[in-house]
Amino acid sequence: MKLVYIDPPFNTGQAFEHYDDSLEHSVWLGMMRERLVLIRELLAPDGSIWVHLDDAEMAYCKVLMDEVFGRANFVATVVWEKADSPRNSARYLSVDQDYILVFARDAEVWRPVKLTRSEADDAKYKNPDDDPRGPWLSGDLRANKPYSLGRYTVTGPTGRDFNPPPGRFWRVSEDNFNRMNAEGRIWWGPSGEALPTLKRFLSDVGDIVPRTIWHGQDVGSNRTSNNEIRALFGDISAFATPKPERLLERILAIATNPNDIVVDAFAGSGTTAAVAHKIGRR
What we know:
Strand order of the largest sheet: 14-5-6-4-1-15
CATH architecture of the largest domain: 3-Layer(aba) Sandwich
Distance between the termini: 10 Å
Number of helices: 8
CATH superfamily of the largest domain: Vaccinia Virus protein VP39
Largest sheet: 6 strands, mixed
Strand content: 15-25%
Shape: elongated
Order of helices and strands: EEEHEHEEHEEEEEHEEEHHHEH
Helix content: 25-40%
CATH topology of the largest domain: Rossmann fold
């Protein structure tokens, strides 16, 4: 198996129509441990497991997964914005997020698939100086980490001198800076007097490294998934806690390639299987 995504009972203390979500903490951990141990044995060497939880058990499951998969194989915790509006009835704070714990079978082997650029990603790139190389995005040339070759003075087109502020450094050497400036890859602002920045051309960038904050507007929210279930089943009470298809589509896009095997051991409303079928996974 290349990917296991599970959305187990969160152990919130509630009783849903289709399952009981109220177990004694140690019983819940025992139930999870039995399954995680089996999942680890079934994962491919370059496979990964994604466990979807909320605040009730997330931290405890992270410790359990450290034991089962090894702390060195922890990849990241994805934060999903599940609510698209505040819950004004909340006793304390409106909790807007869930968590997805990501572990590799072997972190030295596993690598994520980069995400395809969208029109919104490309729209950030502009071309205010009509550079023949096309649209570009301004990048900071300063760094916080000490760099022995990163302390020097640069002079802009109008004769103004620039130095990194105290405690910061230029992220490139002076020779590299001069080379990039000669190539027109340094931006001094429309009047030539601004702090220099690096021009990162759209033509030079590839697909996107996945980030850990997933906004509802990008991958759907609870409202999205409820609407999807309603469109399929009408007024029939199908499943209380479905997940949006776009959320699973992103996970599968990052963790699998076409024809890879995907497993969801807590099938729920079948979203994982539906999305896997639609994008060519088994």
